[in-house]
Amino acid sequence: MKTKKTPLRMCLGCGEMKPKRELIRVVKNKDGELFLDLTGKQNGRGAYICKSAQCFAKARKARRFEHKLEAAVPDEVYERMERELSEE
Questions:
Q1: Domain range holding 68?
Q2: Fewer Cβ atoms within 10 Å of its own Cβ: the N or the C terminal residue of the chain?
């Protein structure tokens, strides 16, 4: 029997390719709303980040979320996502 491939995604912070299940997805939906998708199944354009605060800070500083999601990200959204990450 064939073994199933594990989908890999790149972390926006550290740039490492990791299994999709180890990463957290940040989603921009049709309405332009940005939020963390802990299930990984929400509709919309997604970007992936490690579960560490360091990777989040690095991606935020380099404005990688804005580039990947093709949208301006307000500071309030960054702060909300940072709170959600720290709660996990």
A1: 8-87
A2: N
